[in-house]
């Protein structure tokens, strides 16, 4: 299987899954590797044969869709974004919640192995909890891949997943086990992980903060992006925050959001 052949196949197949080729161009190696293994399982030797298989076995499209889930993540990935969340966004949300005597709620869509969820938990525990000890912070992580959700529940990470983590966190917030670093139990409070495909279902809002990074606004087709943004907006409370990926943009400029001056990846929902 040559790379060019795989690329041509993806350009043909992705639009039929409501996905877009430009989002996969730089990460197609992960998808092509999975397709090579699939060819071996099916005894196929060419993409022409695989196209015929898709035509005769419609259930194979769901298998192909599963191959197109990109699982690249790290704790504290894009340091500047999490610095702004820890310095500006979370303190602001905690202040409002303290005045209103309520919980701060966050949803991480496409949470993979829980890297974003645990990063936010540790940010809160280290920076916000000492100032607002009575404010609860609830986190929901969802992903369409059952293997990722299982790993998220474990909360154990290899050194490569921790390369961006602040040095003091490594000693304070993790225990070593079988060559991995596992989040300590004291930093697992109010965390829930659910198997959900964002295209089919979303957790019940309202949320104060939603992270949808490097998922919908990278890989989904334009019309589907618009639909996802509308549904996400509906689950954000007035004044809530949406965080997208470093190389993403919102599909609609007039979407009811204002971009933070301090961080282009963070948008705030306009208040009613």
What does this structure look like?
The chain has 272 residues and is an alpha/beta fold. It is 43% helix and 19% strand. The protein is built from eleven helices and ten strands. The chain has helices spanning 3-13, 21-24, 28-42, 47-56, 60-67, 79-100, 115-128, 146-154, 167-173, 216-219, 222-235, and strands spanning 104-109, 137-143, 156-157, 174-177, 180-183, 191-195, 207-211, 236-243, 257-260, 263-269. Strands 6-2-1-7-8-10-9 form a seven-stranded mixed beta sheet. The protein has a three-stranded antiparallel beta sheet with strand order 3-5-4. Strand 1 (104-109), helix 7 (115-128) and strand 2 form a beta-alpha-beta unit. Helix 6 crosses helix 7.
């Amino acid at each position: 299987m040559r790379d060019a052949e795989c690329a041509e196949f993806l350009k043909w197949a992705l639009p039929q899954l409501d996905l877009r080729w430009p989002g996969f161009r730089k990460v197609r190696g992960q998808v092509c590797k999975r397709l090579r293994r699939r060819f071996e399982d099916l005894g196929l030797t060419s993409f022409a044969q695989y196209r015929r298989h898709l035509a005769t076995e419609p259930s194979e499209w769901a298998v192909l869709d599963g191959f197109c889930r990109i699982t690249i993540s790290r704790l504290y990935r894009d340091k500047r974004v999490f610095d702004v969340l820890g310095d500006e966004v979370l303190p602001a949300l905690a202040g409002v919640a303290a005045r209103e005597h309520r919980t701060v709620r966050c949803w991480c869509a496409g949470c993979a192995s829980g890297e974003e969820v645990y990063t936010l938990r540790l940010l809160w525990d280290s920076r916000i909890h000492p100032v607002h000890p009575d404010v609860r912070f609830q986190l929901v992580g969802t992903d369409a891949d059952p293997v990722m959700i299982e790993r998220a529940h474990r909360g154990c990470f290899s050194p490569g997943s921790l390369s961006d983590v602040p040095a003091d966190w490594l000693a304070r917030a993790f225990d070593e086990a079988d060559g991995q670093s596992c989040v300590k139990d004291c930093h697992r409070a109010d965390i829930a992980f659910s198997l959900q495909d964002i295209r089919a279902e979303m957790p019940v809002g309202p949320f104060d903060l939603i992270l949808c990074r490097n998922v919908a606004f990278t890989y989904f087709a334009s019309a589907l992006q618009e639909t996802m943004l509308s549904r996400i907006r509906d689950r954000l409370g007035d004044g809530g925050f949406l965080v997208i990926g470093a190389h993403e943009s919102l599909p609609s400029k007039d979407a009811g959001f204002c971009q933070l001056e301090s961080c282009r990846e963070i948008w705030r929902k306009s208040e009613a």
